[in-house]
Structures are given as structure tokens and as C-alpha cells.
Amino acid sequence: MMVDAVSQNIFLTKEQIKQLADRNFGVGFDQLLMVEPPYDPDLDFHYRIFNADGSEVEQCGNGARCFAKFVRYRGLTNKTKINVSTKSGKITLYVEQDGQVTVNMGIPQLEPAKVPFKAQKQEVTYIMLTEQQTVFCGVASMGNPHAVLDVTDVSIAPVQTLGPQLETHERFPEKANIGFMQVLSPQHIKLRVWERGAGETLACGTGACAAVVVGQLQKKLGPQVRVDLPGGSLHIRWNGPGQPVKMTGPAEHVFDGQLTL
Ligand SMILES: N[C@@H](CCC[C@H](N)C(=O)O)C(=O)O
């Protein structure tokens, strides 16, 4: 699976985060999470999320599962239901008996202004123009902005070329994560994600949720979907607009380390 480097009670500059994210260290990561005290008595923790390029972001689905594992491993809590907040608001993490983590990711935002995405009105499928081509995509916010494209074969999808063009497209004023989804059946998709501020990653939890939301709105998917990403599989459940998205998947402790910056 993906590697999330998680640190505690430290402050890092954007430059230091970029240095840490550099794969040449051999401990590269796509996102860094920093634990902070909760700001509300109903919460167990607050944490901040940084992309590999040092930008601070609102939400991270894989990070949420890793966070649940981290706080229990470090003895910061022994709860199996953990209430947390991130820049995008409150979410709840549930550690299952088999060690997998389910995250209630909240209600996806579909209104263009809330993504944010520039559009005259809300649509299920938008047409976007890049310099070279016309692209059809669905758009949703899972706390962070996502566009999802339906492709016939994800293994040859232009993730590395079209991904960055759409990430920085002028219709996404805060940039976006770009998912390339291949529908195998209404219950099963393959997905690759070009992540804002991180490039193509092995897995993206919010990207998996956004793909299921978009696929369901486009009438291609049912309410329960297995999402196969290069790093592993996630199970996503969504009962339609106004309902929260639930994500279940693994989180593995990889190693402990200490770095001098
Ligand atoms: N990989 C994450 C998403 C991380 C944030 C994203 N790159 C962004 O900028 O919004 C996930 O698992 O959800």
C-alpha cells in the first residue's frame, strides 16, 4: 500500500516537507499528517494534512485510515471509534475487528462552487477543454476537489499527461485530484489517481470515494463498489446524494524512523 509518514508534535516548514517527501531519502511519502490537540471536546484528535509538495490540504482518505492505526499503535488512544477533525471538518474512524479501518467520509459536495469548480450549473458530466482535447468528467468534493474520467483501459490511460493538465486547469481554482476510472461491473472498478500536489500515487481514498459518487450519479455503479487501485483495494458504500460515503480498507504499520533535518 501507500506509505504515509506520520509525525507528532512537530512543526515543519513547506521546504522541509518537500525535502522529506523526496523519494531520494528512501522514505518518500505522498502525504504527511501532523497531530494537533482537538479544538472541540467531542473530538479525540485534530490533524493537519500536507501533500508531498508542501501544500496543506483539507482531507485524505488513506491518511484517515493510517491515522487510526497510528494513534492506537502509539498508545494515544485505545478507542475503536475515533472522532477527528481535519481542515475540511469532522469525520469518524472505526477500527474493525479484523484490523481494517472504516471511515465515514461525510457527505460529498456536488455543487460546483463548493468543489470548487467553474461551471454555469451542476451537471453529472461536464465537458472540459484542454489544449489538445475534449474531456468528459464528473466532479465532486470529498472535502478536497476531485474530477473523475471514465476510461476503457486504465492501464493505458494518460494519467501522467492529462492528469497534470486537468489538475491545474483554470476551471479548478484550487486545483484538483484527477481519477481515471475503468468500470468492470456496477460493483467493481479499477482506478488510478493523479493527485494534486503529489502526482500519480499508489492509492487515493478520497479519489476512490469520488469515483464511486461520480460513477453512481452517472448510473454506471451501484451503492457498494470494490475499487482496485495499484496499491490495493478499498470498499466504498454510498446511498446517493445527501448521504455520507463510507470507505473500508487496510492500514499497515510499515516502520518507525527518525530523520534529522
Ligand atoms: N491521497 C489522499 C488525498 C490527499 C490529498 C490530495 N492530494 C489533495 O491535494 O487533495 C487520499 O487518500 O484521499
Automatic annotation (TrEMBL):
Residue numbers marked as site, Important for dimerization: 255
Positions of substrate binding: 31, 51, 61-62, 144, 177, 195-196, 205-206
Catalytic residue list: 60 (proton donor), 60, 204 (proton acceptor)
Reactions mediated catalytically: (2S,6S)-2,6-diaminopimelate = meso-2,6-diaminopimelate
Major enzyme class: isomerase
Positions of transmembrane segments: none
A matching Pfam family: DAP_epimerase
Signal peptide from the UniProt entry: none
Superkingdom classification of source: Bacteria
Subcellular location: Cytoplasm
Annotated site, Could be important to modulate the pK values of the two catalytic cysteine residues, chain positions: 146, 195
Associated pathway: Amino-acid biosynthesis; L-lysine biosynthesis via DAP pathway; DL-2,6-diaminopimelate from LL-2,6-diaminopimelate: step 1/1
The EC number(s) this enzyme carries: 5.1.1.7
Record's keyword terms, sorted: Amino-acid biosynthesis, Cytoplasm, Isomerase, Lysine biosynthesis
Subunit structure: Homodimer.
Described purpose of this protein according to its UniProt entry: Catalyzes the stereoinversion of LL-2,6-diaminopimelate (L,L-DAP) to meso-diaminopimelate (meso-DAP), a precursor of L-lysine and an essential component of the bacterial peptidoglycan.
Family according to the record: Belongs to the diaminopimelate epimerase family.
Cross-referenced HAMAP family: DAP_epimerase (MF_00197)
Record-given protein name: Diaminopimelate epimerase
Classification lineage: Bacteria, Pseudomonadati, Pseudomonadota, Gammaproteobacteria, Alteromonadales
